[in-house]
Amino acid sequence: MKRRDFVVGSAVAGTAIAYEACSSGSILTVPLNGPSYTLNVGYATYSLGGFPMKTRTYNGSTVGPMMEVHPGQTLSVAIKNNLPPNPGVVVPSGKQTRIVPQYRNAHEMMMRRPSGTQSVTGTIDPMNNPHDLNTTNLHVHGIQTTPHLFQPVGTSDPNSMMIAVTPGTTYNYALPIPVDHPSGLFWYHPHHHGSTDVQVSGGMAGLIVVRGAIDQVPEIAGMREIFVVVQNINVNLNTTTNVYEYEPVPYALPSAGGYNDFPEFSMFTTNGQAIGWYNNNTGAGPTQLPVPQFQMRPGEIVRVRFLNGTNGFYLPLVLPGMTSYIIGFDGINLLAPVQTPMDYTGTVTPANTQSVNAVLTSPANRLELLVQAPSTPGTYTLSSAAQNAFSVMFPAMPIAQFVVSGSPVAMTIPAALPMPTREYPLIADSEIINSRTLTFNQSITQPAGFEINLTGFWVWIGNAQYDEMRIDQTVTSGTAEEWTVLNPTSCAHPFHLHVNSFQVTKINGIAVTPQFYDTFNVPPGTTGAPGSITFRVRFKEFRGKTVYHCHILPHEDTGMMNNLQIN
Question: Scanning 4, 110, 417, 460, which has its CA 20 to 30 A from the CA of 160?
Fold first, then answer.
């Protein structure tokens, strides 16, 4: 029997909640039935870092309950939408001219500092201007299961509409977990186009742990688990109630209370505990607040399981003074632990992103580490390094601390880890039946033929913004392909593929050691050359209509997404 520290905080309660669990045995004997969870979607009013807030949450907390499942089981989740009805909003129709913000670059856009205004003409895009903010659904991010964004779950109808759990209704998901599914860390969040960002930015997200072979490795089975969930709660100040909330008016200009890619303030949290307050109006901050602390003994090794659950912030992680070994990314473990220096003290830039001693986590990435405490007692800080690599400058931000004290213990790092058989062997050249190239695009002026985006910022993939009824790519289940994603823009964009993991083989055209992910950063372009990633993917087992997109959620909600048909 082993003890695991499941530390998933509740910002509403103001303290972290600790869970204890026992090892559940071999994955070879798990039943075919599985766990059931209920997520009650509703407003919660709470104090976070001394600020009164009201946001949309799961079960009244800014961190949803952690779910656990084993390969071979079915994960059942009921979404009960207790939010009030969406306000009656009529989409302006017909050709018109609007005055929208004008930005010189993405930094001005994020900092809410337009350099002026621009006149745009056309119809207002009803799909890619955020709307129906109280309508929701569910995405189990990284879980390789039946496509579940379109109605009904698993549909192959290219004309199917996205699942919309409207206020006052309940939707039941039954999601089969393959018997060869990798054991690792995953997460869930809403994914209704037009409301994803507002809901996730209020705290609607939680962890999913798939228990399996890696949990049975003797050295790992004897370690404590520490879960670290970083989120940002995005809010504006309601000057009437003096409560911070996120209630943009659908189809209104930002100057009239409409959606803005970045609202006035962002509160960063670790496990629901406030750690930093960022003023997007001025760019000041984040104002640092105390971070959670975890106790360790000298020589002790803990399994740190990290989620970048922000809506669009890159977190290059550093942990100086401790010995760290990477054992997995995005829920898929490596074949052996890799000792990784994490002691960088400078600024992460486009030129050094791949070379400095920091581990980059894009929005939605999960990182799994074995962390060994030094023999010297003291306090050691896990931080996001200062950065100027992803279109905006962001200072260093402490995330959590490890306090080392007490009597020493002797623990060992495993020499090898179980092979994730769903992903391995690596995809060979002979398996590739097709190659595709996608391009992430953005513009601070209205592209020719595009509808009006009231934020004054347009993002898209290929030649057009998202259309729920258009199939952009069609692939065949049981085959493998190689994709290249180009990024000529000045912003980094994290590419996320639903249903299957993918094997990254090149970054900016340069071969890298192949590794599996479900979300991976596409670097920004440089003068005369786009940034790029190349990956290989097996379309295993599942068929249906699904999506791929940028996981900067304001970009996803405003058009940087495509539909994928797996036949």
Answer: 460
Under 8 Å between Cβ of 225 and 103 = no
The answer to whether the bond into 152 is cis (omega within 30° of 0) is yes
**What is the spatial distance between Cα 264 and Cα 248, in angstroms, rounded to a whole number?**
11
Q: What does DSSP say about strands 206-210 and 67-69: parallel, antiparallel, or unpaired?
A: parallel
Phi-psi region of 288 (alpha: psi -120 to 50; beta: other; left: phi over 0): beta
Model pTM score: 0.93
Structure tokens at 406: 């007490």
In 3D space, the residue among 437, 535, 435 whose CA is nearest the CA of residue 488 turns out to be: 437
Q: How far is residue 516's CA from residue 66's CA, in Å, rounded to a whole number?
A: 24
| For the chain, the helix, strand and coil percentages under 3-state DSSP, each to the nearest 5 | 5, 45, 50
Count other C-beta atoms under 10 Å from residue 405's C-beta: 12
Reduce the secondary structure of 15-61 to three states and give it as a string.
EEEEECCCCCCCHHHCCCCCCEEEEEEEEEEEEECCEEEEEEEECCE
Q: Greatest CA separation found in the chain?
A: 73
Q: Where are the beta strands (DSSP E) in 61-115?
A: 67-69, 74-81, 96-102
Token pair recorded at residue 501: 């993991």
Q: What's the CA gap between 490 and 104, in Å, rounded?
A: 12
Mean residue pLDDT across the chain = 91
What pLDDT was estimated at residue 106? 67
